[in-house]
Design brief:
seven-stranded mixed sheet; Aminopeptidase; alpha+beta
């Protein structure tokens, strides 16, 4: 199987399906608390949305949006559970970072659940470091923020 990536619009059915699976995970794990973050997750507000495919099967999604100037926020990374630990997330994150970099961004930030230990370890392994909370996450004890220089 060959891994490849495709830029898509916010209304792409496969992107909506995978982003919906991410929402389902959050609602299942966090219940009503997940609803607090719905406004932060708008797919239309992203500057870039990308699907990851193995052959014709969409197995992951992610995107980024410009927050201000040269700052990109990585958003909505999700890999189907049966496709994890195969390098899809690592490669998808690199594709998103490179896309943001080509658009003039020099730094990437992201917010993650404070108890999403696997995700936090993954982002650290990709060069992200903890930073002060930004935007909607400022002062939120349920979230932690991370950053990385895009070089």
């Amino acid at each position: 199987m060959e891994l490849h990536f495709k830029h898509v619009y916010a209304e792409d059915p496969e992107f909506l399906r995978l982003a919906g699976a991410l929402d389902d995970y959050f609602y299942e794990r966090y219940g009503g608390l997940a609803r607090r973050y719905e406004l932060c997750q708008g797919l239309e507000a992203m500057d870039c949305r990308i699907l990851a495919f193995y052959d014709a099967d969409a197995v992951g999604c992610g995107g980024w949006r410009r927050i201000e100037g040269n700052l990109a926020e990585i958003k909505r990374i999700f890999i189907q559970p049966d496709q994890r630990r195969q390098g899809v997330a690592w490669t998808l994150l690199r594709v998103l970072e490179n896309d943001a970099k080509r658009s003039g961004c020099t730094r990437a930030v992201l917010g993650a659940g404070a108890e999403e230990y696997g995700a936090l370890a993954f982002y650290q392994s990709c060069g992200y470091r903890f930073c002060d909370a930004f935007g909607d996450f400022a002062g939120d004890k349920n979230c932690v923020c991370m950053e990385k220089l895009l070089s």
